[in-house]
Specification:
single chain; mainly alpha; 6 helices; coiled coil; 233 residues
Length: 233
């Protein structure tokens, strides 16, 4: 603003003679042409290098660069190259501009910002891959635990089936033995009844034998008396 005011004041005083003086004053603060254009070789060189790497990768699609390697290349080689070239170029151009410092920033559309974004995305990819690896391991562990539980469940189910089969067999044997026991009890009842019958018959026979024996004894005594009376009147 001060420069433009001085130029206007000079032009208002003497349009012819003061024009050169104003131009001389403004030339002092004129930004060098090479600083305005920034000699974009500092961007072209990495851009060409990036294009070369991209073309090589496209030629061999089966070959891929791991994200961790890409991050190391961008962080340790490409970004430092951009930063060092930018610093040296700025220092040179600032010294040529009579100590007038101009801020140089690379906007979001340049290769440098794209590489920064690529580095950030690569780090995020690595973090996601690490997280996915952890999740995969958790899933594998869960699957293994599930497989163990499934096998144990199958084993328990088989043991349960065997136990139920044994219980069914034992129940069948118990039913059969109960039926046999009922049959044995019936046989015992029949045998007991027959024994009672035989016992009653035996007792009756004993009583009859005793009666007959007594009759025989009485008859013998009578016969003896008759015989004695016959021979000894």
């Amino acid at each position: 603003m001060k420069v433009s005011r001085s130029i206007n004041a000079s032009l208002s005083k003497s349009p012819g003679s003061t024009l050169n003086t104003a131009r001389a004053r403004t030339n002092r603060f004129k930004i060098p042409e090479n600083f305005q254009k920034l000699d974009i070789d500092q961007i072209k060189k990495p851009r060409m290098m990036l294009k070369t790497l991209t073309s090589r990768l496209r030629q061999d699609k089966t070959q891929s660069i791991p994200p961790d390697v890409a991050v190391k290349v961008v962080k340790n080689y490409i970004l430092p190259m951009f930063e060092s070239e930018t610093r040296s170029k700025l220092n040179t151009q600032r010294s040529e501009s009579f100590g007038h410092r101009y801020q140089f920033s690379v906007d979001g559309g340049t290769v440098y910002s794209e590489l920064k974004l690529s580095e950030k995305l690569s780090k995020e990819i690595l973090s996601l891959e690490s997280h996915l690896t952890s999740m995969d391991q958790i899933v594998k562990d869960n699957n293994q635990e599930k497989e163990k539980v499934t096998q144990e469940n199958q084993k328990l189910e088989l043991e349960l089936i065997n136990a139920l089969t044994n219980i069914s067999f034992i129940n069948g044997e118990n039913t059969r033995l109960q039926r046999e026991l009922i049959g044995v009890k019936l046989n015992i009842g029949q045998i007991t009844s027959q024994l009672k019958k035989y016992k009653n018959l035996y007792e009756t026979t004993q009583l009859e034998n005793e009666r007959i024996t007594k009759l025989l004894q009485d008859e013998k005594a009578s016969n003896d008396i008759r015989f004695f009376n016959m021979f000894f009147p």
